[in-house]
UniProtKB/TrEMBL annotation:
Protein family according to the UniProt entry: Belongs to the small GTPase superfamily. Rab family.
UniProt superkingdom: Eukaryota
Portion held of the full protein: 191 to 372 of 403
Protein name: Ras-related protein Rab-32 isoform X1
Length: 182
């Protein structure tokens, strides 16, 4: 055992996806329980930290990395991905074309970061803005499940950063998945 010592782990999690899908809003809601309607593109690499006390003996520091305004470049630098243990890929359920980029984001991720055994890092797909009218395939959960299986996603969630829907659930699912692999 760890002789009563505190177990303290740092989890680097990436949040990637097209511009204006709500990556920054998701992070702000999860970390600060805050939402702003005003759109401000993130500049540079932004990250936020949330500290979880899982029990008396373990602390998890969840570090969320936001791609920050380079969403159109799609080929993120390796430095950004270094040391990441998992990722969220975000699309906008009101603009299904943002789902078309998801496979590219996933491929870019998988080409740049792997677990020590060479397998892809756990990745959860987030369909944000579910407080609004959904488009296309998002209305078909079975198709979305199939899509996730095909592209190697751990799971998918419909979320709303605005209305605080499924934010905790999605984050907890990814964190549990990381700790399982650990
Ligand atoms: P990013 O470019 O991916 O970081 O996207 P932002 O977080 O900056 O959000 C882009 C825009 O979408 C902003 O105007 C947000 O207010 C809006 N937005 C983000 N999340 C939601 C949501 O859950 N519902 C709605 N209706 N709008 C959202
Ligand atoms: Mg942003």
């Amino acid at each position: 055992q760890n002789n009563g010592k505190l177990k303290d782990s740092m989890l680097k999690i990436l949040v990637i996806g097209d511009l204006a899908t709500g990556k920054t809003s998701f992070i702000k809601r999860y970390v600060h329980d805050f939402f702003s309607q005003t759109y401000r593109a993130t500049i540079g690499v932004d990250f936020a930290l949330k500290i979880l006390h899982l029990d008396d003996k373990s602390i998890v520091r969840v570090q969320l990395w936001d791609v920050a305004g380079q969403e159109n470049i799609i080929n993120m630098t390796r430095v950004f991905y270094n040391g990441a243990l998992a990722a969220f890929i975000v699309f906008d359920v009101t603009r299904t074309y943002t789902l078309e980029s998801v496979a590219k984001w996933k491929a870019d991720l998988d080409s740049k970061v792997q677990l020590p055994d060479g397998s892809p890092v756990p990745c959860i797909l987030l369909g944000n803005k579910c407080d609004q009218q959904r488009e296309g395939i998002v209305n078909n959960p079975a198709k979305m499940d199939e899509y996730c299986k095909e592209h190697g996603f751990t799971a998918w969630y419909e979320i709303s950063a605005k209305e605080n829907i499924n934010i905790q659930e999605a984050a907890n699912a990814l964190i549990s998945k990381i700790l399982q692999n650990d």
